[in-house]
Amino acid sequence: MNEVYEFLKTAGTYYLATADGDQPRVRPFGTVDVYNGRLYIQTARSKPVSEQIKKNPKVELCAFSGGKWIRLAGTAVDDTDIEAERHMLAAYPFLQDRYKAGDGNNQVLWLKDASATIESFQPGDKQEYKL
Asked: At 123, is the pLDDT very low, low, confident or very high (cuts 50, 70, 90)?
């Protein structure tokens, strides 16, 4: 998990894909955290992405950094533990003017049954992970 986390932190921006009915939706994200041995992302409950995840929690994300890319797929699980929210907000202080732990809008999600692949165009340069 540390390699996946570090790759996403280094990339800075990753692209999260969800389903909106039969229409795929992709948008840039930048929050990633490890808490209690789980990989987390963050959004707002007021955003369409939150509703899409609620209807279909299977998500994928992709990022590119240093000549390599990561693809990660899993099931996003809403975590209402206020300590998980606090941990995420502590990792991203600039979000604290928009979100507060327990405010009802801040949403942290951990990725259940996730698998990731980091690879490049170099032959044999592929690493696979189960989170």
From this structure: confident
Helices and strands (DSSP H and E) totals, the chain: 3, 8
> What pLDDT, in 10s, does the model give residues 74-114?
999 999 999 999 999 999 999 999 999 999 999 999 999 99
Alpha-carbon span 82 to 80, nearest angstrom: 6
CA contacts within 13 A on the Cβ side of 90: 8
Q: CA 92, 74, 8: angle at the middle one, nearest 5? A: 35
Distance CA 9, CA 34 (A): 11
Task: Work out the number of other CB atoms within 10 angstroms of the CB of residue 118.
Answer: 19
CB 129 within 8 A of CB 116: yes
- Structural domains in the chain, CATH included, are 2-118 (2.30.110.10)
